[in-house]
Amino acid sequence: MANERVRVRGLTIHRPIIYGNTAVVLSSEERASSPHPDHTHRWTVAVRSAASAPDSDTVGGADDISHFIKRVMFKLHDTYSNPTRTIDKPPFEVTETGWGEFEIQIRLHFIPESAEKLYIIYHHLKLHPWTVTGSGELEIPPPEVAAKAGPVHSWQYDEVVFCDPYQNFLNILMAHPPTPLPKAKKKPVPFHIANPESIGDTKANGTPEFTQAMVQEEAERLEKARKQVIAEQNKWRETLIEKEHLISELKTQLGA
């Protein structure tokens, strides 16, 4: 039993999650019967496992993540009653109605066995779909057109990393391996709208899904950006060195 409270040094283990929201346009009937007739959308913000269940209309959520996440706290806009929503069991999500977009703070509290501090992430609630016009400008279609296109989706992939975990916590994680993501894209990308080709059309393309290819592409983009930052740093470092040499030469000339 004592060994269970010993950290496994040099080991890093991660668990993939997604966080974000989906939103749909309220019908005129729903708005008329609502206590908030000015609200235009119903939305759900959630934290889920990254993999989706087969043939599911939900983005992510194939796995129960409560074996390492104890509770999730969502901080909504202050105009909502009880803006801090605490969810102590899955599904870790909040459903509301509204008309505006805003930033949501999400706090992940891990199980006591992890001995980990809370993890804070931020998500900008997305309600409105947008399209790119021929001139390259962004355009939001009217509600009746957006309603036909299907739900708006805005989801972010993340990996919760545990370094040097306690043995008992590691045992828990190893007993619940995550469902692997599909290798290739078969559904729409999980951002913007469920049916990006169907703006103005009722033809559906299904619920979006994360894939291994998307994760790899994101890693490659991050690596490319890292190299660009390093190259820019080296460029300005060389410029600084040249200027310092020039200043040194001018000081020498003035001293002579």
Automatic annotation (TrEMBL):
GO terms for biological process: chromatin organization; DNA repair; regulation of DNA-templated transcription. It is found in: Nucleus; Cytoplasm. InterPro entries: YEAST_sf, YEATS, YEATS_dom. Residues 7-176 form the YEATS domain. CDD domains: YEATS_Yaf9_like. Component of the SWR1 chromatin-remodeling complex and of the NuA4 histone acetyltransferase complex. The lineage of its organism: Eukaryota, Fungi, Dikarya, Basidiomycota, Agaricomycotina. GO terms for cellular component: cytoplasm; Swr1 complex. Component of the SWR1 complex which mediates the ATP-dependent exchange of histone H2A for an H2A variant leading to transcriptional regulation of selected genes by chromatin remodeling. Component of the NuA4 histone acetyltransferase complex which is involved in transcriptional activation of selected genes principally by acetylation of nucleosomal histones H4 and H2A. The NuA4 complex is also involved in DNA repair. Yaf9 may also be required for viability in conditions in which the structural integrity of the spindle is compromised. This is Protein AF-9 homolog. The keyword Coiled coil applies. The coiled-coil domain is required for assembly into the NuA4 complex. Keywords: Activator, Chromatin regulator, Coiled coil, Cytoplasm, DNA damage, DNA repair, Nucleus, Transcription, Transcription regulation. It comes from Phellinidium pouzarii. Pfam families: YEATS. Belongs to the YAF9 family. Residues 212-239 form a coiled coil.
